Amino acid sequence: MSTEAWIVVVVAGVLVLATLVLAVRLLVRLVKARGLLREAGIPVQNKAVFWGAVLYLVSPVDLLPDPVYLDDIGILLLALRSLHTAAASAGLRPRRD
Question: How does it sit in the membrane (predicted)?
Answer without folding.
Answer: Multi-pass membrane protein
